[in-house]
Amino acid sequence: MNYIPKANFQNHPFHLVFPSPWPIYTSISLFILTTSTVLFMHGFEFFQYIIFISILNVIYSMGLWFRDIISEGKKSLNLILENKYEMVNAISKEVIEQIRINIDKNVLNKNKDQFSYYLAGLFEGDGHFSLPFLGQTILNRILNPRIVFTSHINNIELFIYIQYMLNGKGRFQKINENTIRYIIGDIEGIKLFINIIHGKLRTPKNESLNKLIDFINKKYNLTIPYSSLDKSNLSNNSWFTGFTEADGYFGVKIVEAKPKSNTCKRSVSNSISLKFRLDQRYIDEPNSASMLNIMELLAIFLNCKLSVYENNTGKILSLSVSAIDKVRFIVDYFNKYSLLGTKSKDYKDWEIVYNMIVSKEHLTDKGRLKIRSIQSNMNSKRKVDINYNL
Question: Which residues make up the CATH 3.10.28.10 domain(s) of the chain?
Fold first, then answer.
């Protein structure tokens, strides 16, 4: 790629319009056109040629002026659609500090040595790079890249913990009542983030990371090497924990007994079962790359089958574990590499039910009643009290 001068880049993430020469050029052309027309009407010779040249100048300048307006309009519209600025509210530093004070200090020390793998997995599930066009635009402008995580508002404490681990880099936005974004847009924060997850990604997002590296290397004259895909043993680090934090599901299924009847040809016994599920889109849209390879590796890791189904967003790759002997492996893994967000609460409840099944408590009326109570407050039913006036 051609070297792009640093002067062509903005030092801020905002879209500001450069001064345009076309309004003054058009005004001068119109003034000359008006003046030459008046003089021609008063009998001055040869001004018909000046009128003709002035008309061409007006058409030329207005054409270039409208071209720039359309170009700026498209950029502004794209920024609005991408970032939804009209709905975004920044979360103040005071609120962030209040939440940080209230975070359980034990959480900050969980698997600190595994944070880089956890962050890589979480990013591959919930994050993306917002990378502007790499090159010189029509108006000689290049915008800054951003690293963006999007999550449920109940995970605000998790992302404040991540901000703490990233030396306070990044800012927060509330998109709507249930959604927040954690955004890293300054060069020092981006460099730190790249350094932490470098060589630890396993999906096509590693390709996006290398595009980001290429971008900032050119912008800041850096020599950050490209990141290679991590092929280490999944059992030896917390990458899968972060990936599960983004896209995993811990479910408890309760089936009530039903006697044989006219509408039910067979009697149904009481049963309680567990399910761990992990879904991913077949195609990673930013890179137009298949997620099949990583999901096949995870299927081997979890000793389960990989299935494919379709919904309104397209093809979905799905992993599902429900056999109690295979669930044991998942329990051992997450007890070693802890979940840190609200999904950790679902897992802890799920683990309680698992231990009850192993000890046969689920077969008693008291046990079933307890499991039913646990299930009523899991996943989307979980009530998380957020009292931070976000």
Answer: 89-220, 237-381
